[in-house]
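input
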Amino acid sequence: MTLEKIKNNELFSGKKVIIIHGYTASPSLHWFPWLKEVLTEQGAEVIIPAMPESLAPKPEAWAKMMMDIAPQVDSNTIFIGHSLGCITVLRHLEVIRSDSLHIGGYILVAGCDSPQATLPELDSFTAEPLDHAFLREITEHRISIISSNDGIVSPQSSHALAQSLQTKVITIDNGGHFLDRDGFTHLLPVYEALKMMVSE
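output
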């Protein structure tokens, strides 16, 4: 086994990566299974919960699930949210807030914290404003991945959230909403962002 192979196998050793899917999704869709396999092979503990009633989600039920899977987090914990999963992650971090809270990072894929004209049924998730200042303070590793032609969550909304959180922004041309039907059974920029987080 080469040194490079050994290094890659241990790249995420000791890290916990929590991936939260979005509306109508599940852990078996899109690029989630691929990412879990890659990270697990490289030493990470990866959790992708099946969020409750994803076809008709309720903020309270999703908040409870987050508390069930991640009541405590630390500098080895990294969150990845996709679409509705983004605000779900951010709200959870606010719920478990403390003066000493510090996490390894978060990656927001097609995220937003404002109502979307395309998804009025999800307005309850964005009814209350986020504490952006707090969410900036808990980690220096904040990344947004945004598609230029997302027809579900507007790119403008994603960029507005990224600006509020002062995230590093990775823009992907014509990525749609990063769904499997958009061609995304893999999403390499997420993996590259994670590698950057753990190597710094």
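quick obs: The chain has seven helices and six strands.
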